[in-house]
Amino acid sequence: MAQKSLIQVAGGIALFAAVWLGASFYLGRNAERELAERVQKTETDCGVRLNNLQQQSGLLSASGTLELQVGDLCNTDPDGKYWVVADVQYNINHLILPGSVMRFNWTLRQRPESGQGGPGLQFSGSGHSAFSGTLFSEIASTELSGEADDASWRVEPLTGRVEAGERSLNLSLQVPRFTARGDGNALDLQGVGLQLNLQDRELGLGSSSFTIDKVATGTGSGERLAVASETVRNGDRIDAKILYALGGLDAMGYSARDLAVEIAVRGLYAESVKTLAEIARESKSFRNLTQEENKRYRKAVKQAINRGFSTGITKLSGSVGNAEQQSGLNGQLTIEVKPNADPDADIQLAKMLQSSGQVSVTGNAIGEEQKNQWLEMGVAKAGADGIQAGFDYSAGILKTNDRIVEEPWLQQTLAETDAQINRFLNEADSAAPAAGLEHVIDSPTEAAAGDSAAAPPQAAEPEPGTPAEPQSVSMVGRVSYSESGAMLESADGRRLYFAVDSEVGQLIVGLCSEGETCAVTALVDGDGQIKAIQQLSAVAAAEPEAGAVPAVPAATVNVQPSFDCAKAASKVELLICGSHELAAADAELAGLYHNAMAAAADSDALVAAQRNWIKTVRNQCVDEPCLAEAYRNRIAELSH
């Protein structure tokens, strides 16, 4: 009986051993097959390729070699194509143990470049594979050094570890010291580290950092240099940020402390990012797109923009100076693209974009003369402890340092950018250029300062039967699309007409929907038809700020100023044309200026003074009270 039990136990052990060894053998063969498949999949990759796999299989072990290539491998130019070419040797033990499915060790040796002697990079490591499929490996390198002429370099041995799962990757590398000397220069880096922690390699979700504890050169030194990034997913959105930081820097008599710049992108539509990542991987970084991939690519880009996102500099801080003077720096910049209700609609940055930014400088590192120049130029304004500057763009209105800037180029640039983006996104199957802003007339510039205060020459009367030339008209009106035609209608019932399928119509349709309000300056014929756009912007539904007076056509003014209100383009000119008192003041000033020119011994000086007043006084105003005071003072000056 005891013998029978012993036989049963021995049989059980033998069966268990057979299953154990069989499973080890089976998993080992699977691992070898998976390695061969992975090598084959990299044959057309543009960044990293594995080639020439040679495997020798044993019962419970395997060994082999392969070639590793890193570089711009899809580049047809051989120069710069290969960054690193190395030979890899490995040994694998497939016997299943309680803590691992297999164990392995490996070595990597870089092939010397043509014409260069000496050893290249050499790495080695050992690790294991867990039952979950995650690979773990330690990493180490030999010390590297070299010399050429009077130059030399040395890298102390690297250490680290890597953990790779199905979707995740954790990597940690440390180099104690790197030095390079030659040509009278020296570089010493201490405490170099790289950390990578990815939870989703496909979307790039995770964090990374590159740090250097100390930096020393022949001209200066620094400490705590860091570049860190983080990408996370919040619902259907992806947020990413990257931080550049420097704890201290001393060079050539100047110093910097606690410098930091953080750049962020928030609210990117995750599905678009995923689609773009898939297409980039399959097409080798968008190099080889099929027609279907081309359409998917453009649709993903359009939806990423139309779903809305924000970007900018979320942090700008630090101090700079020398032994006697120090200044602090703080600032931020935000650019936001508001979401569109229709994610497949054309891009409308002119309507969806808003932005703001501020920067302040405190301390005494900037000289008083430089500060005063910036203040006089309007680049900055005085703050509590220094100077500051800022801007804000929203609802088509740009402000710098709390002053409205009347520059039509911004809206025109955004509209032109929209046209170019939409042309690219909508014409995946055609190389023919789409109708854009090539024929939009640039907004008229303000008349020369010396001439704007003089009576304009009278236009010649058109010959009988000759159609009247289109006139420049400014109006704020609500957009209406109907079977009888499209038009802009102002609050007092005046109308401007346009054809929806024309270039003019496409610009208006792209910016203002049915029932929305647009501000337009355009060339209009005698029948009220818009022939060309000079300025175009959407008007927010909110109440306008003080001084934000909409464009008013000349027909509402009884007293004509010194210039033609039909050609008024800037905000100052439109304010004058919209006010009886300001128009009268401008006409009075024009008469005084004309008389002064006739009696002046030095007319050039008078012209220069008048131009300077218009540029630095009148055109800086943003409301009627400011203009009234400016004209009152200038009239008093010319009256004496």
Automatic annotation (TrEMBL):
Residues 447-473 are annotated as: Disordered. Residues 447-471 have a biased composition (Low complexity). Residues 565-638 form the Lysozyme inhibitor LprI-like N-terminal domain. InterPro entries: DUF945 (IPR010352), LprI-like_N (IPR009739), Lysozyme_Inhibitor_LprI (IPR052755). Coiled coil: none annotated. It comes from Methylomonas koyamae. One of its GO terms (cellular component) is extracellular region. This is Lysozyme inhibitor LprI-like N-terminal domain-containing protein. Keywords: Membrane, Transmembrane, Transmembrane helix. The chain crosses the membrane at residues 6-28.
